Amino acid sequence: MYKHKLRLMLLLLCLRGSATSFADSQNDYNQTCAACHNLGVAGAPSIGDRDAWSNRVTKDKEVLYRNAIKGFSGNHGVMPPKGGFTNLSDDQVKAIVDYMIGVAK
Predict the structure, then answer these.
(1) Residues 53-76 pLDDT 10s
(2) Among 88, 85, 59, which residue's Cα sits nearest to residue 74?
(3) Residues 14-30: pLDDT tens digits?
(4) Is residue 49 within 8 Å of 104, Cβ to Cβ?
(5) Is the dihedral of CA 30, 48, 97, 13 positive or negative?
(6) Secondary structure of residue 38 in the 3-state scheme
(7) Smallest Cα–Cα separation from 69: which of 99, 100, 31, 97?
(8) Which residues, 6 or more positions from 57, have their beta carbon under 8 angstroms from its beta carbon?
(9) Which of 22, 60, 62, 72 is most deeply buried (CB count within 10 A of its CB)?
(10) Which superfamily does 19-104 belong to?
(11) Where along the chain do its domains lie?
């Protein structure tokens, strides 16, 4: 019985952490990335635009992370490192990328 309760508590903690992480990522997106990705500034793929994200999500996620963290310049647009918000940690940027991919699916 004790092991069952412990497993249930651990599961609830994991689910709580996931919800908080999603909410934090959404908030971080709104505070930083939304300025460009809501409007498609400088070729930024608009959040939720499945067509714009379809090619991107088929790539290795590490490529998306690297481009978001280190910046990107290509045929379809330009992105400065961390979108210009260098105060964001790499993990925050990765979580925002995951959030944006989730919205696009």
Answers:
(1) 888 888 789 999 999 999 999 888
(2) 59
(3) 444 445 577 899 999 99
(4) yes
(5) positive
(6) coil
(7) 97
(8) 64, 101, 104, 105
(9) 72
(10) Cytochrome c-like domain (1.10.760.10)
(11) 19-104
